[in-house]
Design a protein that fits this description.
Mean pLDDT: 77
Shape: globular
Number of domains: 1
CATH topology: Alpha-Beta Plaits
Structural class: alpha/beta
CATH class: Alpha Beta
Number of strands: 4
Helix content: 25-40%
CATH architecture: 2-Layer Sandwich
Number of helices: 3
Order of helices and strands: HEHEEHE
Strand order of the largest sheet: 1-2-3-4
Length: 112
Amino acid sequence: MKKLLLLSVLCLSLTACDNTRTPKTETTTTTTETATDTDADRNLSQKVRQAIQDESQWAGYSQKIQITSANGIVTLRGAVPSERERNDIAKKISSISGVKRVDNLLAVGQQR
């Protein structure tokens, strides 16, 4: 019984001291993130960012919108002045080639 207890403590100690694993680092920016960090996701996020910036009516707050893309699913976070702009942005993004779905989490009338 003492050997089993000693072996258990030793195993737990070795597991806690495991330095061989390298932590996964995330590549993020303040406005565009890619969840899976693949080239396709990065390119899609860039296309989405550009589409938002190309619309003059969204220019004032386009940099405050956070974009995350993963496997064709684009998530938008941030704040916009009105429900209409929130919906218009999502509609514009959903028409971009490669976008399968838009998760529109934009808040209306709130500054973040």
